[in-house]
Amino acid sequence: MSILKLVRKLNDFMKFGQVTNLDSIEFDLPEIPNRTKELLNKSTSVKGVKFYFGAPGWSDINYKGNIYPRKTSSAKMLIEYAKQFNSIEFNGTRYGVPKLSTAEKWKDKVNKDFKFSMKLPQFITHRKNINDIESYQKIDEFLLLWDNIVHYSGVNFAVMANYFRSDKFNDLAKFVQYWPKEVPLAIELRDQSWFNLKMSQSWHELFYENRIIPVITDTPGRRDVLHFNLTNNHLFVRYVGDFSHESDKKRIEQWVNRISELVSMGVNHIWFYVHQPGENRERILQFYNYMLPLINTSLDLNIPLLVDYSKA
User: Fold this and answer.
1) Where are the beta strands (DSSP E) in the chain?
2) For the whole model, what pTM was predicted?
3) Is 166 helix (H, G, I), strand (E, B) or coil?
4) What is the tens place of the pLDDT at every residue in 168-183?
């Protein structure tokens, strides 16, 4: 593949579902499928609801003077991040599996209840054959990392390539069957071919049988990937928005109502990660400071607002 084609593929990947005009997008959430309701009734539930929330990383310099104190050093960014959020969708592992010594440093910078949801490396998910020996070797390396931080681990997640189509269903089945069932894993499917009714039902059953958590992606330009094919008491959401647009408040309110509905059905672990596009990622502070009071009221929680360092 030429360098130009590779750059284009990477750009397409990073802009998944983003649009230039939000005014024409219909943001209503779809209904919960009957099969999801049946499976939630079968799931083993524990008392208490956990709402984990965060961003895709901790090293964004735009957080300084907004989410972090203005003079925060790079070495202290994770420390400051963990003071504001209780979890992270950690995309840094997409480039490879870090050394165990690096993971030890992560643990030293967060509190005991903080959770890392780590992304599987693209070396695994973006291979022509996701089940070849090299892919499995990388999975095993990743599992060693997970075992090292297990107490701090949230839900590992795999973002399948945009070009990974539903004709690879058997490959997907083999992949999830290799993954150990005791290790939490969520999977995001992207190609449109996965989301017709028949195929959605097929992978929904596959995920349920193998304890895979489906990623629910709420991104403006791809409403088909927004689904509620849940398989157990975990809800894993990747949300793309821009708090400068009026749509976000309506979307937040819809999500709080839907989360409350799902909790009434047995969901008790919510993983909600927000992506703010472009150079405005610090707006995540405004996003959560609108959402958290609604979540607290709806779920009878007491999560504090994020500190706004722009007002310090």
Assistant:
1) 50-54, 87-90, 115-118, 156-159, 185-188, 213-218, 234-240, 269-275
2) 0.92
3) helix
4) 999 999 999 999 999 9
Give the torsion sign (CA, 149, 83, 102, 278): positive
Q: What are phi and psi of 218, to 5 degrees?
A: -110, 95
Query: Tokens 């490879």 correspond to what residue?
Result: 96
Burial class (CB in 10 A: 0-12, 13-18, 19+), 34: exposed
Residue 186 DSSP SS3: strand
Nearest Cα neighbor of 158 from 225, 89, 107 is 89
Contacts of 296 (CB under 8 A, 6+ apart): 302, 303
Cα(153)–Cα(205) distance, rounded to whole angstroms? 25
SS3 88: strand
The vertex-58 CA angle with 183 and 286, nearest 5°, equals 110
* Strand partners for 216: 237
How many residues are present in the chain?
312
Cβ neighbours of residue 254 closer than 8 Å, sequence gap 6 or more: 27, 28, 29
- Four-CA torsion 108, 68, 250, 213, nearest 10 degrees: -20
pLDDT digits (tens, 9 = 90+) for 290-302: 999 999 999 999 9
